[in-house]
Amino acid sequence: MSMFDRALDSKKAKQEKVFAAGLTKVMALSEEHDFPMSFNVIHGFLFGLCSAPIAIGPEEWVPSLFGENDAVTQVIFDDEKTFQILIDFFNYIMDQVQEGGAEFPQALVLSDTMSGNFGMESDLGQWSQGFIDASEWLGEVWEEAMIDVLEEDHNIKSVMLSFFSDEGFSRDLHEELIENDDITFEEIYEDFLRLLPNTIKAYAFTGRKLYEQKLAADPSLQPHVAEAKVGRNDPCPCGSGKKYKQCCLH
Q1: In Å, how far from its chain's centre is CA 182?
Q2: What confidence score (pLDDT) does residue 70 get?
Q3: Residue-wise pLDDT tens digits, 167-214
Q4: Which residue in 77, 72, 54 sits closest to 244, CA to CA?
Q5: What digits encode the pLDDT tens for the residues 58-92?
């Protein structure tokens, strides 16, 4: 089955609609502050985050998701409902990664034309840009965790998942890296598109295995699991006795 005729999961589709509706306020605010977000961008970022070989708390990744935009970030931290929806969305994607079933958003729509699947005007381009944002933020994390035998394969998968963010950049990359003139850009595009579902799963698998190796070497590390559902007014799980919003949230 190709991505063009992939079967959708009605339960997941319904859940993602809830997430999208719950994040409407944040996306509108980010647009006002010239940092436009979309559900696909957020999904791509959280996928990159959940696939990383390290566990990261929301006090770190929420600001990075919105480009360290303090106005947008503060709204998320102050609005308990919105904050919880974002955490639930994180958990939802993390569960997929841990179960080996990571995938694109259920509502992601592919264009019938090649150019229609590139850039921020396209669903796929938005997802790809979100993935790039997470990858760049976590660059040093991957470098420290990577082992030689996996590095080349990981880099190829990263290129494949970043490919649709900008057609001009990808065309330049094709001319720079592909020495065989018989392999056209259109052929690369078709191959990358066809392989995307497996690439997503393989990328997530690499990060998960690297983290498991790290955890085996140092059992004191926290398991790489979805963030606990802690309300802003709940006792902080660190044991300080303070409310979460007054302690580890910031």
Answers
A1: 33
A2: 82
A3: 999 999 888 877 666 788 999 999 999 999 999 999 999 998 898 888
A4: 77
A5: 989 998 888 777 878 888 888 889 899 999 999 99
Residue 78 in tokens: 């102050």
Neighbours of 188 (CB within 10 A): 18
Strand partners, 235: 243
Q: CB 137: neighbour CB atoms within 10 A?
A: 19
DSSP 3-state assignment of 235? strand
**Percentage of residues in the chain with pLDDT exceeding 70?**
83
CA distance 61 to 45: 10
Confidence at 218, pLDDT banded by 50, 70, 90: confident
